[in-house]
Design brief:
Strand order of the largest sheet: 5-3-15-14-13-12
Shape: globular
Radius of gyration: 19 Å
Distance between the termini: 25 Å
Order of helices and strands: EEEEEEHEEEHEEEEHEHEHH
Number of helices: 6
Largest sheet: 6 strands, mixed
Number of strands: 15
Strand content: 15-25%
Amino acid sequence: MNAITDVPGIRVGHAQRTEGGWLTGTTVVLAPAEGAVAGVDVRGGGPGTRETDLLDPRNLVERVHAITLTGGSALGLGAADGVARALFADGVGFPMGGPGEVVPIVPAAVIYDLGRGGVFSHFPDATLGRAAYAAAADGEVAMGTVGAGTGARAGGLKGGVGTASATLPDGTVVGALIVVNAVGSTVDPETGELWAQRHCVPGDLPALRRPDPAELAAARAAAAAQPAPMRPALATTIGVIATDATLTKAQCQKVSGIGHDGFARAIKPVHTMFDGDTLFTLATCARPARDVFGFQELLSAADDVVTRAVARAMLAATSTPGSTPPLRSYRDAFPSALG
């Protein structure tokens, strides 16, 4: 499916609100019931996160049960409470004693989308987190203007959710799900092409060509006319890498760090003081551990799927003319790129 759910046991659920004054949402990446070994790497200067210290390799808990990606900046972290309570109700979590005595481990990261729907005080809460949990499935993953990508913005264009996967020669699967909401642009200002598209593989994107110069000039003019976007906390690109390989917490942290190279190939500038760029890694450990050469192969695949997921997010996003400010999708800004 070219999605993070190609990793056996990984499920994804989206929930969003787009009615009057709303343009935000939550995405949940669920691990198998026994959890997944996890790591994280936070690179942006303005992160909003939950339980990332837990993932330090020096600390006790090895496995997490879900990752919550959500809009709403720090106010949206409450969505993770809904996911944790839903897991608890299902008896899933870190065992603390007798039957049902569990504590679900649900790290989270947020994007800034406050006010994008018109009302600043509309942000995801535990109810939306529960809805995303209830929607989680292991099939095809919806991309674009859904879940945590509902109110996303990338440079001057509409951002969104994207996913991609790769299968290594021995059958190990690596996938990524990314919410693109960056201060930086995903588009080469000289050509109008997506920075990431040159790193994609057949089947990732529709056939693309260099946009018409007139469309590029119009996009530049529209960008110049926008208010300066560099206000604190107006961005953040977040996501999850998953694999069925057996990894340690330290190795998961390394995968997340290398995954940020995938951001750097797709977004410019990246990791600014106004972004809270965060990548989690989940290892279900269903397949054997890899030697150092096999681990390096996995690292290379990880940053590739991150870059490809960014490109797929941008092509799947749809325009939101009623948002604040109105945002055009890449497809609508550069229709000639699609022939």
